Amino acid sequence: MTEKELTAAAERLEAIHQQFANMVMTLIEVFDKMKDYLEKYATSFEANLNSYHATTEMLHSYGDTLRQMMAGMEAVVKIAGESNLAIAETNQQMKQMMSKFDSYFGDTGGLEHTN
After folding, report:
1. pTM of the model
2. Of 1, 28, 54, 90, whose CA is between 20 and 30 Å from 112?
3. Domain ranges of the chain
């Protein structure tokens, strides 16, 4: 090999080495960007997961509250029914008392009261 051929081969080798170095630098940049992307994605995913857990807890809390409200409403309905029954019994007793009153003192008709 002549000196020119050796020089040309050395220049080609230098160009190949430069291309290789550029490729390695580009790969390092790509890997750094991918690492940043994955870190941001992991942070975002964790935030979404935390939000999901918070929403799930809130929905469970709503469910518990609704169950308590339903139990309260059932108690109110039961009390209202018992109260209506007591009122009906009281009305019946009042009717019986009025009929006894009428039998002792006469008919209450015509006893309109005016102020």
Report:
1. 0.51
2. 90
3. 1-73
